[in-house]
Specification:
heterodimer, A: about 220 residues, mainly alpha, about 0% strand, B: mainly alpha
């Protein structure tokens, strides 16, 4: 068991070190989410009155598409170097390898959120409260487990850029429903923040368990 | 006539009987008028779609357990037929909604979750098409089918979990007069038979397709075997 954790952390460390040395993904994602905010500004005619109503939607749209790019890249490097096969040939359990890659991709997406959330607060004047950060972070955990599972799957499929959003987005909808509600309430809408957060945690548990069970069938080939 | 053609013909006749019951036997709704007759097929198609997706779930789970080709073919057949019935449910629902709600679509919990269900299983069929045929496609699709089924209870209970404009359960609540109830159960039985026949026919098609792929694959090794035999002579 400790061995599995060690493998997972080693894989995550490897991915994060590769990102640190190349510094490709996080700057690109940061630029991507800033661009999304700029485009939203032109699409919506935003002023101080309607910003709290529109900002949660923009936040989730930007986050979802940044997430798709991040998780798609998580396995792209392995595929380009054909190193995933080498990783899987080691005695380490595929679930531990999957968990490590998911952990690294999650941290990279969190890095992108660290740009998105302050940028949203600056450009749209919405509060950057602990509630908003907590809702986005809790949703990220479950979204990352699903995103990485399907990224691992499509890495070996034709037309993978096409398939990843088609498979992942419908299953992310529960997170966007609950996370969207939580952020809306945190930004001043009426509703129950606690209820939405409880639902997010439930979804996290459900999908982390399910993806760790399914990871074996996706990776082990 | 083969067995399959006979079964298909019987299913069509049953659907015509159901149609006759819907239009000739069931009374016209006092509030909604003739539009209410959409309800019979709309709900039956939804239940048939649930059933088909349950076949996908079971087939996928069995395939992941023991690699049974039969289970995988049933899953393939169930996904396609289920998608057809989900489409019927959505289209019939929209046709009903236009005169009753005044709009084809509203972002209601049940409508949205049903649309998501449609998208998930359309994605399932895309995985089958894009993944490498054989073990890989079957495995990946099984995983998608198992995850996708999570949405079925969400669709079903959406009218009780959230506040929606979609009518709630009226069958179990005893809100229908006996003629309407009888028509509904007849339509549901006929629709389920139709769905089962469609799954079985699709299963047959998948079996034949697998067989022809197999024969093409079998021809290839013969060529390579001859080549390897020829090598020592050189």
């Amino acid at each position: 068991m400790t061995n599995s954790f060690a493998v997972a952390f080693a894989v995550a460390r490897k991915d994060l070190r590769a990102e640190w040395r190349t510094r490709e993904l996080v700057p690109a994602l940061a630029q991507f989410v800033i661009l999304a905010l700029v485009i939203a500004n032109f699409g919506f005619q935003i002023d101080s009155r309607n910003a709290p109503a529109i900002a949660p939607g923009i936040l989730w749209l930007a986050l979802v598409f940044a997430g798709l790019v991040a998780f798609g890249r998580a396995f792209a490097a392995e595929r380009e170097q054909a190193s995933l096969e080498a990783l899987l040939m080691t005695p380490a359990s595929p679930i531990a390898i999957f968990a490590g890659k998911a952990l690294a991709a999650t941290l990279l997406l969190v890095g992108c959120e660290a740009v998105l959330l302050p940028a949203l607060a600056i450009f749209f004047g919405t509060p950057l409260s602990i509630q908003v950060v907590a809702a986005v972070f809790v949703a990220t955990i479950g979204m990352a487990s699903l995103g990485c599972l399907f990224a691992a799957m499509v890495a070996r499929v034709r037309a993978r850029e096409l398939l990843l959003p088609l498979l992942t987005l419908p299953l992310w909808i529960p997170f966007i429903v609950a996370g969207g509600q939580a952020v809306q309430v945190a930004m001043g809408a009426s509703g129950s923040y606690d209820q939405a957060m409880a639902l997010l945690v439930d979804f996290d548990i459900l999908f982390v368990v399910l993806t760790s069970l399914a990871a074996r069938f996706v990776l082990d080939d | 006539m083969t067995r399959y053609e006979r079964a298909a013909a019987a299913a069509v006749v049953l659907m015509l009987v159901a149609g006759a019951a819907i239009f000739l036997y069931a009374p016209t709704d006092a509030l909604q008028g003739p539009v209410q007759r959409i309800f019979y097929l709309h709900v039956s198609a939804a239940i048939a779609a649930y059933g088909c997706f349950a076949v996908v779930l079971a087939g996928g789970a069995i395939y992941l357990r023991n690699g049974s080709l039969v289970a995988d073919r049933f899953a393939r057949a169930g996904a396609l037929v289920g998608l057809v019935f989900t489409t019927v449910t959505l289209v019939m629902g929209m046709l009903w909604a236009k005169p009753i709600w005044g709009t084809y679509w509203t972002w209601d919990a049940r409508l949205t979750s049903t649309l998501v269900l449609w998208i998930i299983y359309a994605g399932y069929l895309l995985v089958r098409r894009l993944a490498e045929p054989g073990r890989q496609a079957a495995r990946f699709a099984a995983v998608v089918g198992i995850f996708g089924f999570i949405d079925v209870p969400v669709v079903h209970f959406s009218v009780t979990w959230w506040q929606t404009v979609h009518p709630g359960p009226i069958i179990v609540n005893d809100a229908l007069p006996p003629e309407m109830l009888a028509t509904f159960f007849l339509t549901m039985a006929c629709t389920l038979v139709l769905a089962a026949v469609m799954v079985v026919i699709r299963y047959r098609i998948e079996t034949l397709t697998d067989g022809s792929v197999q024969r093409v694959a079998e021809r290839a090794p013969i060529v390579s075997a001859r080549e390897t035999e020829a090598e020592p002579i050189n």
